[in-house]
Amino acid sequence: MKALDYTGTQVNYFFVCRRKLWLFTRDIRFENENEYVQLGRLIDEYSYPRKKKQIEIGKIKIDFLDNKQGIIHEVKKSRKIEKAHIWQVKYYLYWLKSHDIEHITGEIDYPKLKKKEAISLTEEDIKAFEDIFAQMKTVLDKAIPPEIINKPFCKKCAYFEFCYV
Amino acid sequence: MKQPLYLFTNSTVKRKDNTLRIETSENKIDRPIETLSEIYLFGEHSLNTKLLNFLSQNKIPVHIFNYYGFYSGTFFPREVYLSGHVTVQQAAHYLDPEKRITIAHKFIDAAASNILSNLGYYKNRGREIEKQISRIKTIKKQLALAPGPMELMGLEGNIRDLYYSAFNSIIKQNYDFEKRVYHPSDNFMNAIISFGNSLVYTTVLSEIYRTQLDPTISFLHEPGYRRYSLALDLAEIFKPILADRLIFTMLNKGELSEKDADQKLNHCYLKDTGRKKFLRKYDKRLRKTIKHKTLNKQVSYKRLIRLDCYKLVKHIIGEAKYSGFKMWW
Ligand code: SF4
Questions:
Q1: Is A152 exposed, middle or buried (0-12, 13-18, 19+ CB in 10 A)?
Q2: ipTM of this predicted structure
Q3: Which Pfam families does its entry note (chain A) (predicted)?
């Protein structure tokens, strides 16, 4: 897989759990039957009804683009600002920059926290991506999925039963 | 948790916004689509393509039974959880005889365990079935030696014969089951068993549908045309748990009797009353929960089927060895 073929979700999963990245990439996905994720879906669907516009460019899907200000938004239902969210949005910026779309910044909206997190892409980030892509490739080249990570948040993960049964 | 919907009374089923509307001559019932896992249709119902598209979008299979309560087929929405990787590996496990028999063996081994567990339960309640139990145990030990699925099926047949021969001691109703079991399709006992089996089959099929497994690629049963043979494979494990145990209890308590069956030509079938009574208990059984050992939480009996599907996927992708679900209680 070429670096720019990844989706934002894959970059996100790389930071959350490599096993999840592996399974997800091979289309081993599960309907989320637990309430946490259903809530997530509802928030995605209903939080920003007026401004919301989803745009797909190549492999990436951006929640909505505020054209006047050049800001891409990502809505997250979690109660915590997470590294995975930040890198997902940085990846969108990286992707756009690689396609000569510059001067764009990002913003993550946390409706449950009533907070916004501004995201930009630095020179270091761009270098870091080289390493991230290389590591993602190593994970995805494995013949069998990486081990279970045994973290408390596994309980809320859509893959929980699959992983732990 | 999503639940199945069972419809008996003749009705018209429609889409009404994001809701399923069921209209009978007497009333109208609305059921929000998100609450449904699958639909069972008994009796006569009218539906249109608008509804089928709606059900398909919401990934809800519809199992259809004919007038006599015999399973006629499933409206299976387009597969949505497909994974090329899993499908290819699943086919590879079918094509390699050694890999195939490994899985097939696990199905029968678990089925035999669950059968023994049923028999053990009744032995502890004073039934004279020691002979069947010890013979089944002997056959169970030979399972691993079966060179192919054909031989395995043969052994499975022997186990089932012994199992059925114990029914006469297990069931206290005044009725010669032993004799009747051997005259398929024209007797009451057979009507209940086949109704129970078709319910287990459809439940398994609905669970397979929510995973990446291809329901047409099976290991014990030969993949056949026009049937989802993987559901037959997995149903072997769950029939003793979900259907047989229920049959024994209901007959022993007199909750089902010959009055619930009818004879038509050479066929005996469960009447509407019998089906309803059985289904009510069956549904309750699916929702019954146990504490799962490795997940460390309560899971329903129905969920156990899904978990076995997950275990099978893990086996197929080379992660962990599959073994079928065995009752430990
Ligand atoms: S349950 Fe845990 S180990 Fe499994 S995919 Fe989710 S986060 Fe990873």
A1: exposed
A2: 0.90
A3: Cas_Cas4
